[in-house]
Amino acid sequence: MRPARDDAARDTGGAIAQLGERLNGIQEVVGSIPIGSTTASLKDVEMSRGWRTWLLPTLAIIVVLVIGGGAWLYISQDVSAQIGGIGGPFTLIDGSGQTVTDRTFRGRFMLVYFGYTFCPDVCPTTLTTVAAALDRLGPQADQVQPLFITVDPARDTPKVMHEYTAAFSPRILGLTGSEQQIGAVARGYRVYFASHAAAGTSDYTVDHSSILYLMGPDGRFVAPLRTDQSAGALAAEIRKDMTER
Ligand code: NI
């Protein structure tokens, strides 16, 4: 966000102004220290003056470096947080009940999709396309881990997720978790989802955003991929994004 950077610049400007005042203060204090006693030799006085000539410029340079470095770190972190803002750490549960985190998949691309197994249309279509796209990637598919993360953890237990994803491709890993864990990962990926009760029954559907996220081997966001494209087009896009990394 631009305002954040402007704030940083303003803060830095303010800090430098404060620093200037402080340096003036130091100079006054140093200036008020009697240099040598009346009995001190001329050599002592010269040494004291020599000490004064290098101390203040050195202090000033150190302070400028520290403030400049701090501001640079602050701004660069702000920028990278925006670029890499989608995704982030997660802790979830795989089909065998084992805990997995984002770190589990480091070194490989992650192809992340959010949905739920009771989904009547978009999810099964998307997983079918993903499975076919992976087949088209050939050996390169080994570098891609597709993850299907449920937004309906109440019904999508590890067993349900495993059986569901296995029906599309053994490559796809279904992940569930506690409501908190699912809420956290959905927030990280900016996923929208909302349950709607079906009239007259205890059933409900879950509206959810439908985007495939390609994440890099370092866990950072690479590209969003559309779900309404053919398996061939999806494979080509993934291959292109992988080679550009
Ligand atoms: Ni769906």
Give a quick summary of the entry.
This protein has helices spanning 2-32, 42-83, 122-137, 158-168, 179-188, 231-244, and strands at 91-93, 99-101, 109-115, 144-150, 173-175, 193-197, 204-208, 212-215, 221-225. The protein is of the alpha/beta class and 245 residues long. The chain has two domains: 2-83, no CATH class; 91-244, 3-Layer(aba) Sandwich (Glutaredoxin), CATH 3.40.30.
Task: Please give a structural write-up.
With 245 residues, the protein is of the alpha/beta class. The protein folds into two domains: 2-83, no CATH class; 91-244, Glutaredoxin, CATH 3.40.30.10. Helix content is 51%, strand content 17%. The protein contains six helices and nine strands, in the order ααβββαβαβαββββα. The chain has a five-stranded mixed beta sheet with strand order 5-4-3-8-9. A two-stranded antiparallel ribbon has the order 1-2. Mean pLDDT is 80; it is low at 1-10, 25-41 and 73-81. The chain binds nickel (II) ion. Nickel (II) ion is lined by residues 115, 119, 122-123, 208. The site of nickel (II) ion has 5 residues, from helix 3.
CATH class of the largest domain: Alpha Beta
Within the largest sheet, what's the order of strands? 5-4-3-8-9
Poorly predicted residue ranges: 1-10, 25-41, 73-81
- What characteristic shape results from the CA principal axes? globular
